[in-house]
## 1
Amino acid sequence: MDIKLIKKLIVLMQKSEMTEFKYRDDDFYISLKKEQLQVISSVQSKSAIEKEEEIKKPSKEKELIEIKSPMVGTFYCSPSPGAPPYVEQGQDVKKGDVLCIVEAMKVMNEIEAEFPCIIKKVMVKDAQRVEYGTTLFLVKKA
Amino acid sequence: MDIKLIKKLIVLMQKSEMTEFKYRDDDFYISLKKEQLQVISSVQSKSAIEKEEEIKKPSKEKELIEIKSPMVGTFYCSPSPGAPPYVEQGQDVKKGDVLCIVEAMKVMNEIEAEFPCIIKKVMVKDAQRVEYGTTLFLVKKA
Amino acid sequence: MFKKILVANRGEIALRVIRACKELGIKTVVVYSYEDRESIPVKISDEKICIGPSSSDKSYLNIVAIAEAVLQTNADAVHPGYGFLSENPSFAGVCRDLDVTFIGPPIPVMKHLSNKLEVKKQLKKTNIPTILGSDGIVQSAGEAKEIAEKIGYPVLLKAVWGGGGRGLRVIREEENIENAFLAAHEEARVSFGKADIYMEKFIEHPKHVEVQILADKFGNAIHLFERDCTLQRRHQKLLEESPSPFLSEEKRKEILDIALKIVRILNYENVGTIEFLLDEQENFYFIEVNTRIQVEHPVTETCTGIDIMKEQIKLAAGEKLNISQEDVSLKFHSMECRINAEDERFVPSPGKIEKLFIPGGPGVRVDTAIYSGCTVTPYYDSLIAKLIVRGNTRNEIIERMKRALDEFIVEGIKTNIQFFKKLISNNRFKNKDYDTNYIDRNFLK
Amino acid sequence: MFKKILVANRGEIALRVIRACKELGIKTVVVYSYEDRESIPVKISDEKICIGPSSSDKSYLNIVAIAEAVLQTNADAVHPGYGFLSENPSFAGVCRDLDVTFIGPPIPVMKHLSNKLEVKKQLKKTNIPTILGSDGIVQSAGEAKEIAEKIGYPVLLKAVWGGGGRGLRVIREEENIENAFLAAHEEARVSFGKADIYMEKFIEHPKHVEVQILADKFGNAIHLFERDCTLQRRHQKLLEESPSPFLSEEKRKEILDIALKIVRILNYENVGTIEFLLDEQENFYFIEVNTRIQVEHPVTETCTGIDIMKEQIKLAAGEKLNISQEDVSLKFHSMECRINAEDERFVPSPGKIEKLFIPGGPGVRVDTAIYSGCTVTPYYDSLIAKLIVRGNTRNEIIERMKRALDEFIVEGIKTNIQFFKKLISNNRFKNKDYDTNYIDRNFLK
């Protein structure tokens, strides 16, 4: 992917009155949309969109992936109060590592990494209530 | 991807009245969209638009111009039944020449040419009822 | 009964006429301006004829074009709706000459009622309560001063041929009367073409109450109870309700009886509205008769369950009124908000509607011709929807109106929905603590 | 009264609950699937919680997620709407354990009524008219044959734990009974998890009539008259009206009295519907009790002017019924068409709504959560709108429904609007010449 090209496109869009931009060729497809002041760019594959929506979705910083809560409940960063957190910012995790707990109706649901990655940011606080789809972590694929 | 081409396209879009642009060929597909202009602009140019709407509007065949009925009524091609028509297909007319009559409530309204032109087609039949905006003639500017 | 009615109007009221015709099995023709070519009335009418460009003068007020459309389509009646040509006796005359029915009262009645001063004099003679004032046209500033002294300040100067609040002047002190007279005179001349002015005692903190009437050509007349239209902005009604929250049962009976008496005196026929002012002592005074279907007629339809538009068409066709006074009851409380395309300073806000959700559910009626994607043009009235609710108590309709306003989503243009939320949530509304000047005094800076 | 109600449903019925709550001054929480994140109920609710992906199993049927949402939001009651968890005693039990009110009848009543055969036996003992049949579960094909011979062909085999028309078999001749018994048995087992089957005499050309009930915990119960729901497609109701066109005044009184008697026998509480079949001789037979608010409740709201949803919430909060039987009258005739997103062969047609005009004007109510630009998904029920009209006569509501269907514009997806136009224009509808099989016989090939 040619970052410079995309950057140029965004600058172009921001300066212009354009609100939407789509481009596709043999190698890639890009869609730019402008609504009021926001600029969002995303690269999506058509297959398994639902899957992506549920678990992870490219964030505004393109290289980061969101890990979302698979259920409504309470987020816990550690196995018990006072214990060290499962993961911290900057940490490398393997596929299957427990990232956190989401408690729903007294059941502690361990959320595991679906792929090896680096934790870039923890998006919710310990004991915070989360919905289905709330972003829990921003990660980078390892 | 040709950034200069896209830049040109965007400039083109901004200057034009287009709100959306899509292009696709064997190599690539592009789509540009622009929010509708505010009504204020159409209010400003109202008189011009209305004038155009009333009398002439470019048809699908670019070189032909539609002459429309300025009122609801009955179209007559000649001054009286049996008399020769004011104009016929292929005829050259001068500005101010009578093209036809539209009768409304017993009043015979003579419709005059607003510019010199050649009658390419008579679009309605003698004694046919017409609405405001019904196309009466297709003409070509002389 | 008519076979085909030509609808000489646009927007929600054109749609309202078409709805009534469809339910009666009558074909419709709608005439429209080029601007309105994609409107819902044009889309659903059996026939349609474009009669002119956007400007009302050249389309909806264009008598020749409408008459021509009548001839072309063989319509046997014309429904003028409200506004435009609905109170124009010349247009009614043209219809008569074309041998089609103008849906409204007989032409002589229409003409007579357009001279408010004459009507007032006539009714005063038969002991209908009218507001104290000049017995005729006030000819000069000097005469104005003389009469004002006799009836006492504050007084009101009004245009004989006026309407809609224009040509009105309130004078509270003698020193202002000369200038006021000259200004009102000039305004009347400019606005209505005739400068005639008369004077009335000014009623402080008045309420506006009107009685809906149905009358046939056989002398049968009934009322459909009253509407309160006190909430106005610069004499333009904004919110109406029925029954009136200001009338005691005793006064209600009295005002309804007087309204029917007026109908008999005037030999009135078709639908009509008798308007009254109510003062703080619950005295009421006749103001005028409206000879058309009114914007706020759904309030009464909703309370009584009677379809006024269908009744109007049947009456115009010469049918006998088949509802007796005993059949009419207030089945519900009802209230209407007039949703206008205008900003918070009441300035029209035309534009394209980008997103729309219209309230629904129990007890909610909406009369509108807008849809998502349509354009509200600056050429016509800014009324885009009438939101009417019904309920079993005044409290229920207030709560229902609030929730209906809450769920009303209009994006792309500005509306007065927010204004109504404020108006209705205010305790003064709930407590009936307002008069016809309330909005002007409290919501306009 | 409740302070905050959690709405455990979607679409028009979620919106209906929110409307009632707003009018009662109760805050709302709506739980929703990711698919529904841009829906109107989510937009206008005070609070909202996303509980799962599009699949109902993981969202609207996800008891754990909904219970967690209740805890998180401190809601003090849950409204289940219809469908989904509305008749699920386990979910009601979870609500009880969380110390929040499940808006519906008490759990033991709910449980008891889910066993149709037991209820039928119980009511038969108290001389409520029920359909002749087996007095319990039919254990074998042989027993089926025996009973059928006794009560006479044709007979009907029904799943004890079934509903919605599945697990039903009509047998007209002895030679078919063995295969039919085995098939019905297997279908019941697969569809409802329990294979239990019972037998009833099959009623030819039946009409479906149901009585709307309100009952408080103090033993006060009233009816809100009946609804006719005869027009069904494969046991799915499509058009309902009230009053029933098939009942004489005498029979109406009888059926309403019996319905109230059933309420007393069952110690029923909250809103409910008592369903009956009516045969060609105007004999009626109890079928079952529905323990939820029903899709077609607006028909009765529109006739009587009583807001059933608000009453349901007040009853669930333990309030005393403040409407007496004498206060209830049929103020209007009323009719509902269920507008579904489906093609002419009744196959669901999801997609994006590109253009929309919803009917309005006098006597029209629409309950819908769709808007222009929204997407009708394939994940849930295909019902997109309920179109309800009222009028003073059956003829008036037929004409009004026709014109409302005429002006209903939905582009982008297919709907059954065209089907309803055909259905209602047919003289057999006007002349009341139909039964519950009419649509299946005449509109399905």
## 2
Amino acid sequence: MIQTVAELLFQGATLGVLYGMIGAGLALTFGILKVVNLAHGVFITIGAFIAIWLTSLMPTVPLALIIVATTVLCALLGAALQYAVIERAMTFRDPSVPMMVTFGVSVIFTNALAQFAGADLRSLGVGSIAQKSLSVGPFNFGLFPLLTLIFVAVVFIAVDATIRKTRFGREVRALSDRPDIAALMGVRVRLVHAQVAALAAALAGVAGVLLAMRASVSPFSGGENLMIAFEVVVLGRLGSTKGALLAGIFLGIVQIVSLRFDSNAGLLYVHLSFILILVFWAASGKLK
Amino acid sequence: MTFKYANLLLIIGFGSLSVVSSLLLSSGMLFLLTEVLVIALLAQMWNLLAGYGGMVSLGQQAFVGLGGYGLYVFANHSGLPVWLWIVVVPLMVGVAALPLGMLMFKLKSAYFSVGMWVAAEILAAIVMRTDALGQSGGLVLRPGGESLAGNPERILFAGAGLLLIGTIVGLRVLLNSDLGLALLAMRDGEEAAEAAGVNVRRTNLLIFCIAAAGCAAGGALYYFSTLYIAPTDAFQINWLISMMFVSVIGGVGTLTGPLLGTAVLIAVRETCTSLGLTGGTYWIIMGTIAIATLLILPRGLWPALRSKLHVPKTEKEATIG
Amino acid sequence: MTTCLEVRNVSMRYDQLLALSDLSLTLNEGQTLALVGANGAGKSTLMRLLCGLLTAEKGEIDVCQKPLALGRPRASASAGLALVPEGRLLFESLSIEENLQIGRSQRGGVWDLAAIYTLFPILKEKRKLPPSALSGGQQQMVAIGRALASNPRILLCDEISLGLSPLVTQEVYGVLKHIREQGTSLIIVDQDVSRVTAFADQVACMFKGRVTLAGSARTVTLKQIKDSYFGLTT
Amino acid sequence: AVAAAGVFAPSIARGAAKTIKIGYMGSLSGSRANFGQTEAWNIEKIKKHVAQGIMVNGQRYNVEILVRDSQSEAKTSAAIGAELMLRERCNLILAQDVESAVVNGEIADTRGFPMISTMSPLESWFFPRGGAPGKPFPYTFHFFSTADGVLQSYVSMLNQLATNKVAGSMFLDNPAGRAIMDKNRGWPHTLAQNGYAEIAAGPFQFSTNDFSNQVAMFRDGKAEILSGFLYANHFVPLWNQILQSGMKPKAVAMVATFLFPSSVAALKDHGSGMLTEVWWTPDFPFKSSLTGQSSAELAQEWEAGSGQQWTQPLGYGHALWEVGLAALAKAKDPMDAGSLRDAIASLSVDTVVGKVDFTNGPFPSTAQTQVVGGQWNASKGKYPYQLDIVENSTSPTIKTTATVRPISYE
Amino acid sequence: MLKTVGISKSFSGVPAADDVSLSLQAGERVGVIGPNGAGKSTLLGLLLGTVLPDRGQILLDGDDVTRLSPHQRVSGGIARAAQIPMTFHRLSVSDNVRVPAVHGAGLRGREAVEWVDEVLEMCGLAASAKVAAGQLGLLSRKRLELAKAIATRPKVLLLDEVAAGLTEPEIETIIHMVETLSEGRAIMWVEHIPFALRSVCERLIVMDKGRKILDGPFAHVWDDPVLQEIYMGVPDDNLS
Ligand SMILES: Nc1ncnc2c1ncn2[C@@H]1O[C@H](COP(=O)(O)OP(=O)(O)OP(=O)(O)O)[C@@H](O)[C@H]1O
Ligand SMILES: Nc1ncnc2c1ncn2[C@@H]1O[C@H](COP(=O)(O)OP(=O)(O)OP(=O)(O)O)[C@@H](O)[C@H]1O
Ligand SMILES: [Mg+2]
Ligand SMILES: [Mg+2]
């Protein structure tokens, strides 16, 4: 019994930090740029596919380097997209404009990816480390999920500190409140926007790589991941990275526990619990 | 008064056009054009909700699926004629949307958008798991247990045409009424509208239910023509993408825009088909057109075209701005 | 006395509406200008233009005899202009201290955090709190402090006492006096004309986008100002 | 205006000559693209074959082939189906993709368009189509092995291994998975009949990204056999979690998972020992009724032409045309739907995948083909893995090439 | 006409309205003052229904309206001009006023059109009737906000800093307007400009920290030392 519960919690937590990671980038764009970035899901997929592509191109290069390269490529893509497209969409007063634009972007990227890489589910082989396990007493933990957990925690702490403690973080937050006044304070608006977009895309890319290592991704899994990201961000109270992590872990545990009772649930109970919490919050006036 | 006259002209003109063409065109062409009309109808509904109502829903595909499934279930298991159900099912979906709307309107803006998407996903998952609905295998349309004989696409096409015209005229009347004014006001500020005496909740719900019923009608019409329905198809996000792109390209918050957008969509699709391009390429092209429109002419083609051609504004608009 | 701000023949429009038409204005180093005018005269527009939040259709602006690039908030900020905007507009997700710090990113000078805290001791007490936890007047102090932190040559205050209780307004004016004594030039817009003209060295009166009356605060009478409100003087 | 011309002028120009139009639907792209990987090549070959037309009842007919890609999507399938039938009025529809066949089946039946489909177990076509025993469909036909046949060959492979006879099972929730999961006809039934205990983890959604519960169930139940139905793309994460849990299954008997060499290659060095059902290999002792080529010759021609390893759909893709052309040849009037339908219903033809006989299928309107069992083994040849036939209990004409062995973990 | 019984509201623990009881009679003009953050706007929000009280009761003509939504109260005869104008920025000025005329006052057809014109004229917005509200400056928007409130034909009119930011001559116009409007209505006016209140209101309420601390005839309350201390500061020669 204890063993089952411990394993459920461990699996839930390791899946959950992955969910948190999936939501982290969106928390930035949503919370700071005030852009409902519907292309976030496809960025995750792109990250995964870049890593898969790089490893197949250079099978001997160590994984860490592949992750770094993927992150950089995603960041560049994110910044470029922000500069070229989203920035302009943000000048319209109507917030649905950037939302619809990013929706268009996600449709384009999804289909382009399917054209180039095929529509199959793919995963990133990381060799035998993915299959190692660790025994602590009667418990059996996968080594790889444990490493993911630690890695994600480190990334989260770093991002959180950057946003809360540094000058960059201060500018980012100021910008999200009042872009025009921030500009007057010497903040380089477009640059900071692009930096945030790059950071968000980089986080999405990392999430994609982790996802491809643990599970599998297809060009069409963007929608699913976007939904998870949204749920994480909303439950984590907008823009808060710590909240995103906790919400991710919550959803991860819901997912694992619900699958235990109903293996065919897919994401059904995750979605249901999200909607229920949201409605509960709304009813008790927690959403404005 | 000229306004009423214009509406009448619309009904008579396009109504007879759709009836006449339903008699003249081949059944394959009618199949295609029915889908075109359905997309135009769906786009009008999304546009009503998002463009005029300011409620950007990402879950309208749920109602398309419900319309289709509703038709199949009721027609297959009752002795009543299938044509009756094609009228009744959308109304039922419209009513069924009421509780969902009451739930969803607790969420605002982006929360609403995504909440709708999640709700659609939940619905699709439930249908996919329901034995009576054929699970992932889907259903075949056999009204009263018998295979459907004859060529229904003529009636379907004429019906879709008349429904679309009816919808447009209906929307014109609605938007020029006091309710339309309330709708436009709410888009700029719900609290302000409320403080001005508008019953925001009721208006929102009404629009939501109308849009749900309209999408269900589209779904019922479309899946009537295919005779087979599957959950991964009926609830797919591509329905939503079509509605959204068509509205955005033609002009969100106008009534003519979605029609123009549908024309663009169909032109692109047929060009892609005739050039032998894949579906992916088609979506890439549509996405690019939609983004370009949003960035260059954020109000869409129709408002831009209208001022170029000096066509006077005869409809209430709620364009992006 | 040197001029520190010169606005020459500036015009600016919103769509069709001409908000500033051929407007000219000068301000001397260390002086305070009271900018008055009816509702919609274009005062805020001028302020926002000076700060680069809007761009002009024609005309030039010199700050300390150097031309200012228009429509570029960062250029205005580095030229030494700072704005206390209409309605405060503080950064809600930053603490009070961070609100003040962000202003500092431009240039150093006498107005560091310590100096601002000496000026507004109450802010030091509340420095960890978000602006929403402050009263309206305290928020106005933060807005002033934030602008000061960039060590401006010219401080622009739009609707400085809008929505403040008389007690708080008095305090704010006390602070402005202090700032002026440090040698900073000021442009103040305030609905309370008698108070602001009594405080200022110069007065400029705007009507429909142009300056209809300008002069020393000591020579211009309230009667003249009232007339210019309705466009009776040119 | 260009596009409008495309919309409103569907092939009026080619009416007069006696031309048989064959409409082809297949998953050439999209999520089932690897089933369609060899199709373009097959179709080119057939096009050459019928370039001079075909002879039916002493009369020469031109053959026009219209190829449409279903993109592995139901909605596209509906669109291309309507196009081929209602717009182009094809005389015969061939569907390589079962989804296209199911989506368009009802229209074909009600409007009278003969359609032949393949490449999916009979049950996964018959039941979603709303089929009932003793009631043939008017115009639609399907040939393939049965799910039951597939399962029999799996169980007979397992019988050759020394295991504790405990099989964990899990199934992707789609029509094919549901057919195999069926309590009365499917895998649970087969296992029980053969004395295996089943640890049933049930169906799972395509979007599932974690299998720890299934793995925990299998581990706690001490399953030595991993079985069920899923496509290769779910297998890698599943396999990772299996090994993380400390399990070492002796056999993997997953329907559909290892049909393709690419799926085995995705396991890097760990692919050896995976079991699969075998519909067709170059070792099948059959010949094409069109070209006279043997199975081996067909595979060789493909490998030489494409530089890629043969796959099982190569044979069925070819056989689909064999069946279609044989039906046309047999029809009194190939342009008449009714007589073509009658020709198919009474058709029995020897193809490269074996005999296809519509007169005594297990379900109405179907023909059952043979299936055997295979195991992937490391190869010293050009490609990393080779498929060996290790079980032929239901089809003794097809010779085995190796014996089954458990997965080894050294 | 309008009566509150011990209403309270706090935001995350901080009381913005604390046990406030008051009543308004027809024809009464009541001024409300108090330091920033005293809870004046919150009080008006409670009366209109945009803010729901944690405790207490609100009665309109003797009926309990505590739980009614704002639009229901508007139909019942309460209207507010908000401190931060809430105009419909994409609608024209006249449509802005039409919304409350139709949905608030329940007017139809010609009657509505005439009423809208009348209100626009009254608020000095007739010239910009066709302009989109988003194009107006802050202060014109405030005026439009007032027009919208008047257009509902309220029995109780709540004004929140409608004169703030206006110059003296403009304030005079507002004062005149309020005087005309007050016939048969109750008016509650929150403002930081004492002289404006003084020339209109016969009664004055002082709030601080969410509590109603003084309530009585204007002159009486005005001279209260408490008011001088918390609100006015040192006597200001410009005003008195
Ligand atoms: N964003 C805008 N778009 C269009 N017109 C505008 C905009 N902002 C201001 N205006 C118009 O420009 C004119 C000048 O406005 P401005 O805000 O500068 O006046 P002001 O003197 O500051 O008046 P106030 O006393 O109202 O603050 C006004 O007529 C106003 O309606
Ligand atoms: N929506 C809200 N959420 C949290 N706190 C609020 C909210 N609205 C008001 N408050 C707080 O309630 C208190 C009273 O605010 P209110 O706006 O009623 O003051 P006021 O008397 O109108 O002040 P002012 O004269 O500055 O307009 C303030 O401390 C304010 O910060
Ligand atoms: Mg101003
Ligand atoms: Mg207030």
